[in-house]
Specification:
About 45% of the residues lie in helices and about 10% in strands. With about 650 residues, it is of the alpha/beta class. It folds into two domains: about 300 residues, Type I PLP-dependent aspartate aminotransferase-like (Major domain) (Aspartate Aminotransferase, domain 2, 3-Layer(aba) Sandwich); about 160 residues. The chain has a seven-stranded mixed beta sheet, sandwiched between helices. The longest helix is centred in the N-terminal third of the chain and has 25 residues. The radius of gyration is 27 Å and the shape is globular. The two termini are about 55 Å apart. The structure holds pyridoxal-5'-phosphate.
Amino acid sequence: MSRPDRAHPPHDPVIDACFLGPYGENDALLERLTTEFQRDHVYWRRNFHPDDPPAIGTAAALHPDYLAFEARMRRELHRLSAALKKSVPFHSPRYIGHMASDLLLPGLAAQMLALPYNPNNVSEDSAPVTVDMEVKVGLQLARMLGYPHDPADPACAFGHLTSGGTLANFQALRLALALKAFPVALRAAGVPELALPPDDWTAFNLPQPQVIALIEAWQGWLAAQPPAEGRRWLAKVEAARIEQLGLAGFFAAHPELGPPQVLAPVTAHYSWSKGLKLLGLGRDQLQLVPTRGMRMDVDALAERLARCARERQPVLMVVGVLGSTEYGTVDPIDGILAAREASRAAGLDFAVHVDAAWGGYLATLFRNEDGSLRAREEVAAEFRYFPSPELHAAFAALGATDSVTVDPHKLGYLPFGSGAFVCRDHRAVALLAERADYVFHGNAPTDYMTRYRGLGQFVPEGSKSGAAAAGVYVAHEVLPLDHRHFGRLTRATVRAAEAFYTRALAFAEEQAGRLAVRVPFEPDTNLVCLALNPHANRSLAHANAFMRGLFDRLRADPRQPLQTREFFGSVTTLRPELVGAAETCRILESLGLEPDLDGAPLLILRHTLMNPYLIDHENGISYIDRYFEYLARVGATLAGEERAA
Ligand SMILES: *Cc1c(COP(=O)(O)O)cnc(C)c1O
């Protein structure tokens, strides 16, 4: 079946209302909204106790100290405003560097609206409104991912916001460790009448659904004990938990077990290294699995797992990356789940976490309004290449994983300070509670929403921004996370990436005899990399020098006016020790470079195609075409400089 022509994808008018716009086109709309709600906030203050007189006198603004303060404030604000002019122009279709773009108006306006109320989402005491919104954001994301999202369902998912993907990944590690170690603690405490695993190894390798069933059985048993007896058993179990003993104490008490490993692809974000350091397991426990075309090699994973099972090396978690930070590639999540099935049969179990900090929102393209999954053919009809069967299978498998990281501040087009962690079954989260006893009180808050209003109990942070939560919640209400709503944005970016990819292939032909141009691996998402090498050059060092010259013109430089930059891009490297020898040789040879596995890593350009106006239909401008014209020009200039030198 032939696909419709998507070289010049049609324009979607809804997108015109979504952002402030590259030129600030929607300035009047944003101004109206901010003024309206700022006034509204003032009325709220006045209507609290309308008979309380103003505490700041009407003549206060005439006092010299007041005036001096105002003058200082103005001066500093003007300085700040002037300094910020050096900021990176994320809003511009000339910005195709890192994972940032324009901000969704509903999210921005909601956050600005909520800021003066200053809600603190640590608990409902300081955020009676926005803490609910944060829990609902968890449900909105759960629905997008294919997790149970009805709070009336005992196995409903749970999610919350974090400062970013780094902390969400850390929360995933914390939760996985808590679940893994809890059955061992129940055994150590010798809780009677529960069906406990026969030995520590089995307890440490219990599949998560069974751990959750055990937590429930334990809670039920505890509630049936006389209060004093219940308190005694609770203290006993708490004393045996890894959270109480620490890693050293726990593993000393269970010599059959050793510190578990985390298996992640070589493309994993460096937050995983940070997470293992923070957890105290150490980086040695982070084992990198090789990739093929920058996607996790599931055969290599299966081999590692078989070895771990043989050597009785526990595994805490296997991380699948859904949209790698450097290349946008997607791991076979379905394949990882299949590898776990096989591993379970060998007695080795672990959590499957998906790091979808980047690609999570692409799930909107696969989701119908009623929450069901769209068939691949239906999605494919809207694109030229997207999605490959492998990609569709990876997204379809999300609902069977244990937890996911998604960054609203990346492909969610929301302000920085919003990452999210979502786990499939909220009952697991009881193990994260800082005060375990509260779950077991006679008057324990059993209702889902009520329980999570004490959010600070479960999250790594304490005080946290309720305004940020309001921004994410409102954006998702305005653009629900399915293909007909939010999907309009993700569809536009994937189409832009396809247009970019198509243009890159044509560019490679045009440049023959001047520059070798290659797309080193097929893009899965809206990140496209380009490798360049001056024609007939065989030296890797020389190719990298050429790339550095190019990148010098594509990066933010605070010493130069912004306007001297035509485009913003980013670079990444291909390191042979991560990419693998065969893959490195293939890429180097395709560029005409001497295979050099001991040499420096190869620098490549990395483009994030998030901006909804990369193709400007209003004026008939393609910033993608302009970018490639720019690359041709700079390439020729750099080559000319070389000849002159
Ligand atoms: C960005 C990213 C992270 C880290 O998220 P922050 O929000 O920067 O903390 C983790 N994993 C992946 C795949 C990412 O792209």
